[in-house]
Amino acid sequence: MSGEKGNSNIRVGGGLRLARLVLLAATVFPVATAVAQPSTHLAPYVLFAQDSIRIRSALIKDGDVGVNDGLLYTRGAVAASQSDFVGGATHLDSTTDCEDLFTNVLVGGASRCPQASGSVPRPVVANVPQGCSFPSPFPACDPSRPVLVDHNQTIDLPLGPSGTPGIYGDLVVQGGGSGPAVLKLAPGEYHFCSVRVGRNGSVLFRGPTTVDVTGQVRMSNATDIGPDSSLGAAAPPPGAIKWYVQGTQVRYSRKGNIGGYVCAPTARMSIGSSVVLKGQYVARSIRLKRSTVTYTVPIPGVCGDTVVSPGEQCERNADCGAGICVDCSCQSATTTTTTTASSSTTTTTVPPECDDDADCNHGSVDGAFVCEDGHCVPACDEDSDCIQGSPQGAFVCDDGHCVPPCDADSDCNQDSTSGAFVCVDGHCVPGGSSTTSTTTTTTSTSTSSHSSTTSTNTTTTSTSLAGCRSDDDCPVGRCVDGVCTPECEDNADCNVGSPTGALVCVDGRCQGGEVCDDCTDNDGDGLVDFEDPDCCSQAAGVRFEMQPKKGRFRQVAPQVARLLLKGALARSGLGTMIDPPSQQISVQIRNQSGEVLCARIPAGKFRKTKKGFRYARKKSPLPVELGRNLDGVRVKVSKNGQVRFRVKGRKAQLTTPAEGTLEVTVGFLKSTGRASQNVCSHGVRLFRGGKKSGALRFP
Known about the structure:
The protein is 2% helix and 44% strand. It is built from 3 helices and 47 strands.
């Protein structure tokens, strides 16, 4: 997202990146702008789930939407023009509107939700409970002290003695036709075993409050959960009301008015239609339909969480105008620069001293400031964060710090002093074919509250192409006649005369790419066979969107399970590109941990029938390592061009995966020809646990 959203003092969303370090660094070699990345802090997200988010028609007024490692699914009109969408795998309806989409796998797509370049880290946020300050150990409730607010009652529930936490059992706020009840909570902390609020019931907060719930939270229709509006301007903002839920279910039924910061990292969160949400919501999985969501910042804010909260002046230098941001407070910074052919003079204010990152963020090691050379400086996500205002800045983002990328030639060549790259002005650059000499004389004076230093430096740099004795001495290319020589610039250079197109260009060298029929990740990118674009590329128009209709797993023995998958491989276009009897068919299933199933049916094993093409293990048995004991695979091309499939195995060789997102890929491999002649179908679905132990199902 670009610019500021909502309150002019609050910055949220995708454009809100970690603070930028303003440096003026003279250099000969400009730094290329890095690819934008999604935020790895929870702070900018209004909805964030560990495993999956499914949205069916919604208005999201502010804040990002992210899935830590799983599926982001939208259906219907989703209006979120100021929000970034982040998910490892994403399904978008064409009516989805967002600012930017960050994803590794996209099914469908929307012109008003453009996909940003780059990849999504897995996970996006390293530790979600820690990121939302989830209590550990979790506070205990007292089952012997249940709270019942009866019909038509209004109760102020007290805290413990001297303002200590109020520790109670199950909380029930009655509602319905007999009259709704109202519970009012004082500023402080409450512990409950579970919370249930009936229809039209209310839980109102009179100040900043924390509610810890050991079990489930269930809010019925038309509940009012949030600030006490009768207090007027004195009512707490939603971000000051914090719910921490240890249980496995959080439900907000339709027409509710909900305000708060809710962190339930192990819960399934269900949000009914016509619910108005204000605040921030974190759960294991989230389902939302036809509701309105508005982001509000958590209070108190955490310095370094990238969001300017009430009580903070800044999170980065850009928030301070002409000043600089130090510990989330703006300080004046006077910078004057005089440049001549050989000298420059700079006066600036230096951030406070530190020993480690925690000193810069009030003990928050995940804050946006880091300790660099004894000073608190903003961290970074990308190189561009380090060169704000310096179009030829010499600093790059390395492990969250703005630093020069090299100090010596050995930094550029994995300690190989004979490598072909050299360090010039803090940048690793290729050596030239000729020798050049540059002499730079710099006189600088710096003044701060801590020190005053005047120094004169003279530097002479020689750049030359060093020789090599083996490929190991060359970070790019291969050692040819004692010189590091690149043999390719892109994959196309590697595949002239390579019939399978399996070679790829890596660091100037042609290396074995993905082999499409061995159930192995050959190129180390985490994708196997037809899951890898090297074998089946969406850009080439040979990767079709699968529409799984039904999926079933049930474990019957160790590494043996019943399996059923069926659905549509493509609505149109695929039927004219496949001929199963002459092609090898691959059936692949994977989850976030890796391959669940990779089965291969060689060419010649399918036979044509009246209803399409069929493979049967009884008639064409295969070794287990190939067919994985699949009993049958059917492919049918309908008259309207739709291609349907069914995969069945009574004793398939696999282990039923844990519930969550599964990717299913069916590939068609030609026995001869290039990888570009392959075709495949790919789908992503969320599978849930079945009634029986060891079972998994969709839908």
